[in-house]
Amino acid sequence: MKASRRSAWLVAALAGVAVVAVSAASAAGPSYNLSKLKGTITADGSSTVGPYAQAAAELFAKAGAKNVRITVGISGTGGGFERFCRGETDLSNASRPLKASEAVKCADAGVKYVAFTVANDGLSLVVNKSNTWASCLTVTELKKIWEPGSKINNWKDVRSGFPDVPLKLFGAGTDSGTFDYFTEAINGKAKASRSDYLATEDDNITVQGVEGERGALGYFGFSYYAENKTKLKVVAVNQEKGLGCIAPSIATVQGNKYKPLSRPLFIYVAKKAAERPEVQKFVDAYFGASALIREVGYVELTPQIYDLAKKHFAERKVGTAFGAGGSQVGLTLEQLLTREQ
Q1: Regions in the chain scoring below 70 on pLDDT
Q2: Closest CA relative to residue 210, chosen from 197, 193, 191, 195
Q3: Hey, do 4-120+263-340 and 124-254 end up sharing a CATH topology, with the first three levels equal?
Q4: What residue spans define the domains of the chain?
């Protein structure tokens, strides 16, 4: 699996609190003996959320659910939704909400779903450690680099005073929710991007590429930077609205200061699958994992959002407040929740 090394790192980081978290989560839901649960759970989707789901699956087994087989694919948010709306998977890991066109496909196939946020994220721009000039980039400069048809191939053309160093770009694949969100936030339209960059659904390739190229620039979810911060340098973003240069961190994402690249991360659960005991207990594990989220570099939810997510799943509330129908970029989770209320 593409994320196997990352999953191993997550499992190692979380091992000390795994059983406690799963046990605490189990206490909140229906009473099932984890050792007696059986079945197969299938998940696919986001490369940002997938590794956490894989780690959660391994921790679920360590907590006692050894007879539940959980498979986690990493085909990107768009690829995951395609499978989910065909009824091929039980859960879809997503770094953006379901689009209107995808919701239609789910409806046509009779796939109803319960959706909830699992964490917050801050898309992180990274450069090579030897890059001494790009500590902060403006949204205008990022658009100049990434917009469709851009011919910016050297750092000296990004800003006066930057050195004559070839610019090599790395980023998310076109099936990725990260790609959709980044292009909308920076270029003003989802999927609007120059195409002459190394696009991949495997964020480890971006890590290796940026680490190996002096003039590289790439982007991915914050937790990937947190894991690789000894190898890469993170770049702050200036939104140009008087806030100055803000770097991604748990504090700046949680405090809604890292704009416009902060975003929620999602889990979609097929309603039919949500009635199965093994799926219920696996989802419960997510709700007991706030300490785990902090441990591995994801940004935990506020208590309000966390409690609403638990309530939605407990009630099997079909649909989501974060559905299609307007841009999500720049809105806080609290603002999005007003649509729900």
Answers
A1: 1-32, 287-297, 319-341
A2: 197
A3: yes
A4: 4-120+263-340, 124-254
